[in-house]
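pasting input
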Amino acid sequence: MSLNPVISVLGRKLRLAVIGGGPGSFIGAMHRLAAQLDNRYELVAAALSSDPEKCLKAGLELGLPADRVYASGLALIAAEQAHPHGADVVAIMTPNDSHFELATAALQHGFDVICDKPMTNTLEEAERLCATVRETGKVFCLTHNYTGYPMARQAKEMVAAGMLGELRLIQVEYVQGFNAREVPAQPGSWRHDPVKGGPSLVMGDIGTHAHNLLRFITGLEVEEVAAEVGSIVPGRVVHDYAGAMLRLSRGVRGSFWVTQAASGVENSLAIRVSGSKGTLEWNQEVPQILKFKPLDGPAEERTPNGPEVLPLAARSSRIVRGHPEGFPEAFANLYSDAAEAIAARRTGTQVNPLALHFPNAEDGLAGVRFVAAVIASSSAQGAWTRVG
Amino acid sequence: MSLNPVISVLGRKLRLAVIGGGPGSFIGAMHRLAAQLDNRYELVAAALSSDPEKCLKAGLELGLPADRVYASGLALIAAEQAHPHGADVVAIMTPNDSHFELATAALQHGFDVICDKPMTNTLEEAERLCATVRETGKVFCLTHNYTGYPMARQAKEMVAAGMLGELRLIQVEYVQGFNAREVPAQPGSWRHDPVKGGPSLVMGDIGTHAHNLLRFITGLEVEEVAAEVGSIVPGRVVHDYAGAMLRLSRGVRGSFWVTQAASGVENSLAIRVSGSKGTLEWNQEVPQILKFKPLDGPAEERTPNGPEVLPLAARSSRIVRGHPEGFPEAFANLYSDAAEAIAARRTGTQVNPLALHFPNAEDGLAGVRFVAAVIASSSAQGAWTRVG
Amino acid sequence: MSLNPVISVLGRKLRLAVIGGGPGSFIGAMHRLAAQLDNRYELVAAALSSDPEKCLKAGLELGLPADRVYASGLALIAAEQAHPHGADVVAIMTPNDSHFELATAALQHGFDVICDKPMTNTLEEAERLCATVRETGKVFCLTHNYTGYPMARQAKEMVAAGMLGELRLIQVEYVQGFNAREVPAQPGSWRHDPVKGGPSLVMGDIGTHAHNLLRFITGLEVEEVAAEVGSIVPGRVVHDYAGAMLRLSRGVRGSFWVTQAASGVENSLAIRVSGSKGTLEWNQEVPQILKFKPLDGPAEERTPNGPEVLPLAARSSRIVRGHPEGFPEAFANLYSDAAEAIAARRTGTQVNPLALHFPNAEDGLAGVRFVAAVIASSSAQGAWTRVG
Amino acid sequence: MSLNPVISVLGRKLRLAVIGGGPGSFIGAMHRLAAQLDNRYELVAAALSSDPEKCLKAGLELGLPADRVYASGLALIAAEQAHPHGADVVAIMTPNDSHFELATAALQHGFDVICDKPMTNTLEEAERLCATVRETGKVFCLTHNYTGYPMARQAKEMVAAGMLGELRLIQVEYVQGFNAREVPAQPGSWRHDPVKGGPSLVMGDIGTHAHNLLRFITGLEVEEVAAEVGSIVPGRVVHDYAGAMLRLSRGVRGSFWVTQAASGVENSLAIRVSGSKGTLEWNQEVPQILKFKPLDGPAEERTPNGPEVLPLAARSSRIVRGHPEGFPEAFANLYSDAAEAIAARRTGTQVNPLALHFPNAEDGLAGVRFVAAVIASSSAQGAWTRVG
């Protein structure tokens, strides 16, 4: 195998432009790190902040020339399209309400797009963006980054291989203490502005991750929800918890619980999937361990590159077993898989099918639909509500 | 402190008669073990089985004289009342539908009673039994044994001491694989007969444990539920899963999930309680560890007889720290606490208030009300339903 | 299977007399609890303390009649032998330097004996006691209680079944914080008096446990040691740590480390056994989990009564899987196994061979030899020294 | 803080040349990934393999121009020195026996050096290389990468801050199953050739890591060892296990155990450090958790960027708490710290003192001395042997 499949196919690294993620943005730093971790992208342009001074300073710190640092995302898109060595790919990590406009513009100007989640704030935007992706034929990668962990991918493959038998019951939670204080963790952040952050802070921030992870691992769709979403921290106007009962495809039943108000809890995105032959358990806080509890044998701990690793998980680890990879590598797996897809699209070559498991616009649409259904059910006093 | 507070107060051990729990009954063996573990009861009589031959054989194997082995619970109650050295206490571990009749008879014949959960199958019976307990003034201990674990008790005390601040969010699950096969784990068992086992197998078997543990630790009541209860294993007629959203007293919100159909999972009764100052996490599978995650400090692992142990937890451990006690000791804590209460009642002496935290008839009534509300909500398509 | 194999064979419970273990003794309370947990012994006599007043008070608290409470162990032995319903078994939990005299006297007066570890303080005593056991033909059980844990027994059986292949490497540690303070945990205790406590506090208290566990699980003997034993806490005269390299039978190599001076550590008796086909790991602090890491498959967690449980482990658990048993049950397993051996001996019946895995006088002698070799090697500047 | 302190100081990224680490080399891929993860180095030249064809192919795959791909390390050093935009830094990841020659040449040609461990195969070489580093004044970073983990660094800082009180006892192990099979994991590898791999495979590969980690966290030196080193897998000529008792500075005592022959074990580099006030425990397999067991309070779990994080640990994490980083980020921490030191040296500016905790040539010399002492003690039948 090539040391760098993108260079091997394209003859060079992909040129990346980023919009958003300026100083102080945790997720912006992570996007850039993820892009360069496997050496498949070269950062060539950026619009890092809506404040021009901060924007330029940050761009220079990142080693960009001043003329590739732009005052806005739309300016970047226009200029990079015209540039002789302009970006191939635009990565968007701006407030949620701008994803639709920027992603649409980038696609229509010929860029492949990597976009932070949630895809959009409204269902209508999600449907239109999905259509634009289909029409333009570009690659669209939505950074539900937890699906990049090797053991989340191993779980998906074990389910698909029938090792759990018929699926029956699913529990998923995403519990954090990030917003447990009465003073928000990020005062003044767009996250606490429902116009920018979307209809439900907790659902947009982490609820869509939990929902996507469930779909990714199980291959099932959530069909109906009975839900409650609300604010538990005194004085808060945006949502900080959501609970739901789930009815999934193939008669599977489930439980869903997300909150950012659980004081002291770090980042417990956890899933348990039970089928007729066994149960899988995984928690993002110790992502290197996937518990498999067969109906008829001892409980197992599966590990990255450990025995009986399956192909998608195997290609998602960089190191021999026992050397933990983490959140950055999981994030980078999405970027690097997308890079293979983009390089193949741009060269008209075949892509390794294992590279195509990154979340896409259809996944993003499913997430927005799920958020809408949870809110609708909660407004209807928990009535069972169809998703989509 | 006395080596045996019951002997010190009463001059002898309490005389115990058991009804139910014959050969093959896991819970019967556990009741007897729990009774004798701290040397506070002497087994003097038994009605172990409805089959007279098995009953006598088992009684003799337990070292009872043949004339104290009875063919039925009611026969035992009548004869032991008349016996010059008759039992003081009757412990009931028969199928659920007989708890009401036997416990009522035992109380009315002057016995203190220890009774397996769920207290009764119907709400009416639960209310009448509660009234009988109040009228007779006898001790009634319901064996929600998980509340006997030292770290469950430490959790209760930490909440009561305000270490979590204002409570906000609760998750409780009880997940087993006990009934994951299409052929039931105990074919022919009364558990799979709705008349004997009650309206909901999973709720009676483990749902009431989860509900009771939540109430025990938090001191809150579940006020409303939006629930679904059903059968996920093909061909099953009794319930094997139940999910609910919870609205608790003081505005607290919660999530509830129980099943016996999660293949390969052992016995995950787990609770997470979050307040404004921190979160507690406990799982029965590793009961010696209570995780405390303060808002403002490093996460802690509290252990039995470890640093900063609180009084009720301290008296619930028999050994210096680092020597794990388990399920039998937790079960025995209920028996031994009840023994102190019974010895005090019978001698008109003061009881140590710390002995009075065993579940009682009011707790049993709360459990039956919760089961009823879950079923009612599920029948009403998940509508929010008041408990009690 | 009978509910009580001792009653089934002998027609009654065994009559037990205890010497030592008065108020304040953790291990005395544990011996009595272990004896009664499975209902195979009835406590009939005791010499609980060398202080006559405390002795009587404690005996009465335990429910004994005053005339079966004795002022000394030797008085108990003489009187119980003469008593028409005298004890069958004498359990010894006195300071280490008295084990030899009391155990010898008890055996010679016709009692079966259960004795705390270390068996004796000197090698000569150990050899003579071993000879007395052989000559009298009585049952002698040494309470290396950690061998009673179901998963320690499962480990032994997995090794014996060849599941690890050829053994190669062993690590054993016993690390506590019990004596980490400059002021001893038990000031004035006989443990800190080398005459009563023996030549090495840490080796007698816990080093022999670690050594015995290693032998129990692997079936190997330690043949040579290169060791250092000493005191690390300032001002201490008795040993509080010992380290050794081990050469075992069949060319196996090992590492040994014990201390009671590791501040804050609870009770980490841990062993790792590696062979050509896999590795086992077990730690007493979470005794319900045995990790098995095969050379060619995913790591497993074996649990009591879980899948693929082996016969000795299976008979050592009282409850269905997922309901943790602990230190008291492990201790009780030795008592109950010994009870079966004693009942068989006294009735001339066959004993279940699975009952015969409790540590005996030969194991005690091996332990005393190991202590002597560790001390000798340390005195010889760590020179490799033969054991025994 | 700048988004990239190297660019801020130097105006550009550092130019990196790598020697060794061609296709199939796990550690080579890791070096390159670590260099680019924080965007502080640009790979400009390489001598990846002694096979010219493989070397060129790999260089091109990495995106290098053909004229910066060299047939040997010495050729690279000479040509890059002469190149107008030649490398600033040479990273060496060749077989152990070549480290000395290449590192010496690179230093003498004006490069800063990053070198894989062990530093050299012989003590004489180590001393000479140390002298060359001192004389040239260049930065020399030895990739004992485990010291880059945030929680290993937090441990170091907690010890230095006196949170453990006076140190007393240390256990360190490095246990793998990498070489458990009779057929080596890497047949034909230089690792199994004592001339190239050095006098002791297990000590060079992982023993020096364990030794370095111990020194890094505790600040103590190992002064004397009593050791055994050997081969346990049949037919093996190189060492696959080593055990030692340790006497450290300030009277501290310790235990050391390393092996690559523990079937099924992944990569258990674990350390326990006990002092008068508490104990720390850390294991590389779950590097995001540092256990702190104080003498007088509940056990704690410290986590990256969690509460009470100390400065060196804080700067070693890239993400908010709860998002695990792993082995690549730990490795990158050494590269990025060294980059700050190199940029400061080259610009004559002040370096952040927190950047200076990467292992250096003195640490490398200490490691080679330790290996020599272990081998000498083992040859002398375990006699206590001075280190250095």
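fyi Chain A touches chain D through 46 residues (CB under 8 Å).
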